[in-house]
Amino acid sequence: MTLTNFELISVVGQGGFGKVYKARLIKTLNLVVALKIMSKVRVIKKKSVSSVMNELQILSTLRHEFIINIISAFQDRCSLYLAMDFLAGGDLRFHLCKFRKFSEAITKHIAICIIIGLDYIHSNGIIHRDIKPENLVFDSQGYLRITDFGIARIWKPQNSHETSGTPGYMAPEVMCRQNHGVAVDYFALGIIMHECILGKRPYNGKSRQEIRDQIIAKQAAITEVPQGWSTEAINFANALMSRKPQQRLGCNGPDEVKNHSWFKDIKWTDYEKKLIKSPFIPDEKLDNYLKSNQLESLEDQSILHSEQVQQQFLGYEHVHQFNGQPTYVSSIVSPRTPNLRVQLKKEQ
């Protein structure tokens, strides 16, 4: 697998390591994917080799309708490539910026999608640890999926040293360097609920320390029931935001979350099969595509000449099997095959 197996269509995201492209696997299933192209130089400079390797290791063991699924992973001398499900609906942050707040029906739908995804992740012994609107992406039918497993970890009883995350969504026990479990992901869901209901997070600050001080100083809570909302919804959000993990809804597993009175009419099996129509359908043509459609400019890549540096990325390969066959069986480029033209075009 090489970059020549893909037709790059448009840029749909940008991160610290590079860009994410909407791309098409050519000469195979005509499959449209999200192709993350990461600069090895940037990964090394940000000391994130373990993060990108960890994401691949975890994603290669998971597959579910409510998370992002990996299709293939490969590398060359300069870059890492991760092909995943393409989701056309944009991330939750984009829509929160656009609408600021959501109705109770839409917020309940968002919460249900996250809960189903977390149930699967946690059942495989993994804590995501970075649940936030930027890492929740809608498909074209309005169902959310969980993405970005860079700092996800297989749960271990002694994990107080694992303090990565996004301030504002990090649970108090992570901020305070304590051992933690699945309840950290439910705390983040509570913060997202707060955002959907009131249009803002309960804890804000310019630094991690400022946010930590706020968490220690006060318990986040929605004190009044906004117009158009039920008491059960507010109770649910507040139960998730409990500072003490032992008292937090979800600390004993997904069943106590699903059995909350707010979900008394929900048929979870139908939701898992996506038989319930979403109350929120994203626009077919999102206007959040980035202007630049060009591949990343090359940095100083002299550090990549070292074989010792390249060894850090050893094993960054994966191919998903469809019906027992590799995704790209007919499109592997042999050493004698001339380079295929990688076509960049703007979406019509």
UniProtKB/TrEMBL annotation:
InterPro entries: AGC-kinase_C, Prot_kinase_dom, Protein_kinase_ATP_BS, Ser/Thr_kinase_AS, Ser_Thr_kinase_AGC. Belongs to the protein kinase superfamily. The keyword NAD does not apply. GO terms for molecular function: ATP binding; protein serine/threonine kinase activity. Keywords: ATP-binding, Kinase, Nucleotide-binding, Serine/threonine-protein kinase, Transferase. This is non-specific serine/threonine protein kinase. It holds the Pfam family Pkinase. Its EC number is 2.7.11.1. Residues 6-263 form the Protein kinase domain. PANTHER family: PROTEIN KINASE DOMAIN-CONTAINING PROTEIN (PTHR24356:SF374), SERINE/THREONINE-PROTEIN KINASE (PTHR24356). The lineage of its organism: Eukaryota, Sar, Alveolata, Ciliophora, Intramacronucleata. GO terms for biological process: intracellular signal transduction. The keyword Plastid does not apply. ATP binds at K45. It comes from the Eukaryota. Residues 264-328 form the AGC-kinase C-terminal domain.
